[in-house]
Amino acid sequence: MLCDSNILIYAADPQDACCAAFAEREDAAIASVSRIEVLGFPGFGSLSEDHRMRLREVVTSMVEMPLDEDVILRAITLCQQRRMSLADAVIAATALAHDVPLVTRNVDDFKHIAGLKLVNPFEVS
Fold first, then answer.
1. CA-CA distance, 109 to 17, in Å (whole number)?
2. Which of the listed residues 15, 57, 58, 65 has the most CB atoms within 10 Å of its CB?
3. Tell me: the pLDDT tens digits for 70-110?
4. Above 60 in pLDDT, residue 121?
5. Measuring CA to CA, how many Å separate 88 from each of 39, 52, 71, 83?
6. Are residues 24 and 3 in contact, defined by beta-carbon separation less than 8 angstroms?
7. How many CA atoms lie within 13 A of 42 on its CB side?
């Protein structure tokens, strides 16, 4: 399964009750753009050292799926089909290229993509 950036952010929260279970799974992975989103946002430096460490640990503990030619071509197609952020297109394209479900809280950002399997951990019973 591929974890969206928001799942990594929730999983790094010590109070998290549901996302860490997904991020800690053996088959959990991230798209390369998720590492950039989670560790590269402008406010990262203003977080506490403990919070930055937890975010780094979550991100580096997971397999990172590369931004290869197949992912790039799928992301281009997704962007041509409907307006969406580049990061969302790359994340969705990565899940499609590897035929894995995307775990995200932001299901509405992706539900229009044919063939993309979505899992919202906040709705899983």
1. 23
2. 58
3. 999 999 999 999 999 999 999 999 999 999 999 999 999 99
4. yes
5. 16, 23, 12, 10
6. no
7. 0
Asked if 33 contacts 119 with a C-beta cutoff of 8 angstroms, the reply is no
| Boundaries of every domain in the chain | 2-119
The span from the CA of 54 to the CA of 105, in Å, is 20
Residue type, 96: L
The pTM assigned to this predicted structure is: 0.92
Q: Which fold has domain 2-119?
A: Rossmann fold (3.40.50)
Q: Which two tokens stand for residue 106?
A: 């932001």
In this predicted model, what pLDDT tens digit does every residue of 35-57 receive, in sequence order? 999 999 888 889 899 999 999 99
